[in-house]
Each structure stands twice: as C-alpha cells, then as structure tokens.
Predict the 3D structure of the following.
Amino acid sequence: MTDGKPMVEVTNIRREFALPRHSLFAPPRRVVAVDGVSFSISRGDTFGLVGESGSGKTTVARMLLKLDLPSAGNVRFEGSDIFTQDRRQERIYRRSVQAVLQDPYGALSQRMQIGSIVAEPLRAQGLARGEALAAAGRMLEAVGLGADTLNRYPHQFSGGQRQRIAVARALSVEPKVLILDEPVSALDVSVRAQILGLLREMQQRLGLTYLFIGHDLAIVKYMSTHVGVMYFGRIVEIGPASALFGRPLHPYTRKLVATAKGRQKLGEVRLTGEMPSPLAPPSGCHFRTRCAFAAERCAAEAPVLSELKTGHSVACHFAAELPEPA
Ligand SMILES: Nc1ncnc2c1ncn2[C@@H]1O[C@H](COP(=O)(O)OP(=O)(O)OP(=O)(O)O)[C@@H](O)[C@H]1O
Ligand SMILES: [Mg+2]
C-alpha cells in the first residue's frame, strides 16, 4: 500500500504544561508531556504509538490535529509545516486529517440525528444539506450500517455501532490521514476486532495513512507497520512493528512484550520501583528507576535514540549488551 513518501513528519516536538502553583511562594510546576518526539509516517502506513497512561500519546495526537501547539519542534504534512499555514492551507489540512477518539458516546452530539452528525463535516465544507445527507447515507453503508440509520440518535446504538458512526463521520470528507486515539479501548472486547477490521478495510480501500494510539500491545501490533514506544514523553524505541515486537531492544519494550505474552515471571522483565511522578521524572534515563539493568550512567546521562538495527532505534545505554530475552 505504501509508496514510501512521508505523509506526516514529526520532528523533535515538545510540549510543556505549566501547572497552577500550590501557593504564591511555591516554585512554578510544569509537566513535560512530550519531550523531543520524532517520527514519520509514509503514505498508506500505520504508525502505532504505544505507552502507559500519561506517557504523552494524546498530547502528540492533539498537536497533529492542531488542537494544541508544540512548545518546540515541527510537524510537516506532505512536506509543509502545519503550524505556518495560511487560512486556505489550514482549511485543507483540517479536512485532510480527521480523528476517531476513544469514546464514541462523548464524541457524538446526543441531540443530533446520525445523518446530521455524519453530514456535518461535509456541510462545514459548503455542501448543500440534501447532498451531504446522501453522502452520509453512503458512508454509513460503507461502514456496515444501513441507510435507515440516518434519522436515529446516538443513544439508540451500541458502542461498536457508535464507533462505526464516528468512522463514517471522519471519512465523510475524504481525509488522507486518520488520527486514531485508542479507538477501541472503550469497546467490549467482542466488538473490538470488528472495528479494527473495519479500520483496516477502509485503509486498504481508500489508501489512508493512520496514526494509531493504543496501550494494548497486541492491538497496536495488529494495526501498525511501524511503532514507537513512549515512556514519560519520550520515544524509547522505534522501528518496524515486526522487528520491534519480535525482537524488542529496550528493557521497557521487552517488559511490555513479555507481559503481553504472559511471561511476567521472568526476573529480567520485572519492573522495579514505583511509577515516578510526571512532575519529577528521574534524571537521565526516565526508565532507570524501574529498570533491572540500570547503572550509574543511566542517572547521569539521558540515552538518545540510536539505530541498532536497520530502521530500528533504541534509547538505552546498554541496549547492545543486554542478555538475550529468554
Ligand atoms: N492540558 C494539560 N495541562 C496539564 N497537564 C497536561 C495537559 N494535558 C496533558 N497533561 C499531562 O501530560 C502528560 C501526558 O498526557 P497525555 O494525555 O498525552 O497521556 P496519554 O499517553 O494520552 O495517556 P492515556 O493513556 O491515559 O490517554 C500527563 O502527565 C498529563 O497529566
Ligand atoms: Mg490519551
């Protein structure tokens, strides 16, 4: 599917949030939610971002959707910077990049009929009501819902059906990129596979490019061609999905993969220590307080991502010397 051309290029983006002070005399507090993240997504590919809660995944998504601005770094879409667009370019961009989020119930306006919900982005593009509704009906059929869906309301549908509606709405304006932020996390396990299947089918059929965010490794693996593993705002490992899951290089990824395979008992993958506070992440390598291989250097110096295998990079001082996973 892919033609190797970068559709989205994220370069060294950073996002800090200033938090309210505890008191007038307390020092200012801040969270570095995203700390120098870079990746690119080729046309037709799916880049998976995986990481624990609070690792910065949604913050990355929000910047790509231009719902938030980076404190530093830039994002290019088809080669041009998305944060220096004029109004016309911005309008095209907002149409080209659509989102499907975790909670379909929250995302759909409860008082609107499904037809209007799906037609709304088309109406915003200036399409007449009748045409927009007709297109909405076709889109709803394409995602596996009957055209009789048009006059009904969100509460009359199951979670899986509502997520189909959200997909139809996102696709109605013929986007090039979908930002999928935990699109199946709120769904029953039984319907997850259907929605993932639908997303993959639509990707094939329409040649879409995806950013797929999740915390379930098996799902991210199933969906993604390339994957980045986030920990406390940084990508600690990045590479082709097959390599990254087949031969994880970072102790954190190794832990995640082993856990997903039910091999928790292995001593080398045990996470030690508590989850640090995002207000005071450990110096050097943020992961060191939970890493079985941590040494002095890890506290002194933050490891940078370096390519250990072709296209497969890891941010760990000792990645090349770690024992083979059992
Ligand atoms: N608007 C904000 N103001 C202050 N802090 C924020 C804001 N948005 C995010 N954060 C903080 O930034 C960090 C990253 O949050 P983010 O929502 O990006 O994580 P996530 O990986 O999407 O987590 P989850 O898996 O729970 O969705 C967290 O510590 C969060 O508390
Ligand atoms: Mg999130």
